[in-house]
Structures are given as structure tokens and as C-alpha cells.
Design brief:
144 residues, alpha/beta, Transcription Regulator spoIIAA, 7-stranded mixed sheet, 7 strands, 35% helix, globular
Length: 144
């Protein structure tokens, strides 16, 4: 499984840019993600957690990814670096799930903290936003 690091820039229509030294010096609002594609499943790890300002950009990034990688059967969002899921974050996750479902693709979450898992359980969204213990388990489950 090959992993690539990308920076998502808060610029109109630019979401998919390879990480490079030149970009680290730019003073733009960015979040860093690590993307790996294994068995036609994209695993997106948020390396900086997430901030309110970047959430819609993440949704657009995933939409663009499904266009550039049409053979994808699913997307897994690695939330290991996300310390808290609030109501806005839940709304974003539901929107991403709906977008992918409309394209016939699967969506899952992995490496969630116990607190974030409890939020999913209390809201009963664990039935829709499927949490997996690891990325490899999610990839395997999506390929069944």
C-alpha cells in the first residue's frame, strides 16, 4: 500500500496538491492529509485533526478524489488525530456518507477515540457511519 501526503488548500477549486517543501512556507489555511489506496478503497488520514474552516474543503476533496479515481469502491476516514466530534462534524460526516452513497460507494471511519465512538453510539449514527477498529479492517470489510 503506497501512501501519499497531500495538502488541501483553502483556494477555490484546488484541493488535490502534493506536499512539497515549497508549499510548507506558504501562509495559507491548509490541512494535511495522508492518502493511501488499497484494494480500491481510499484511506484518508487527517494529520492535523480538523478545524471548522476546513470541513467543507474536506468534503470537496473527497468528491474530487472519487472523480479522479473512478474505480474506488469506498472511502475510509482515519480519525485518529481528531479529538472531538461535535454536531458540525457529525453533519459533515453524514454529508460525505450521503455523497458517496449517491455514487454507489461505501464510507467508513477508523481509529476513533472512545469518546468519539460514544458520540456515534449516543446519536445512533454508528449504524450509518460505520466505525472500524483499523484501516486494514475497513478495507477488508469493504471488499467483501
Amino acid at each position: 500500500m503506497k501512501a501519499s501526503v497531500y495538502r488541501i488548500f483553502l483556494l477555490e477549486s484546488i484541493y488535490f496538491m502534493p506536499f512539497s517543501q515549497e508549499q510548507t512556507d506558504l501562509n495559507l489555511g491548509v490541512i494535511t492529509v495522508e492518502l493511501s489506496i488499497n484494494d480500491n478503497v481510499a484511506v484518508i488520514a487527517l494529520r492535523d485533526g480538523w478545524a471548522d474552516d476546513y470541513r467543507e474543503t474536506l468534503r470537496n476533496y473527497i468528491a474530487d478524489l472519487t472523480q479522479t479515481e473512478p474505480t474506488l469502491i469506498g472511502v475510509v476516514l482515519n480519525l485518529e488525530m481528531v479529538t472531538m466530534i461535535d454536531s458540525q462534524a457529525l453533519g459533515l460526516l453524514i454529508a460525505i456518507h450521503r455523497d458517496l452513497d449517491n455514487l454507489g460507494k461505501k464510507f467508513g471511519l477508523c481509529y476513533m477515540s472512545d469518546t468519539n465512538l460514544e458520540v456515534l453510539r449516543l446519536t445512533q449514527l454508528d449504524r450509518v457511519l460505520i466505525p472500524y477498529p483499523t484501516a486494514s479492517y475497513a478495507v477488508e470489510a469493504m471488499n467483501k
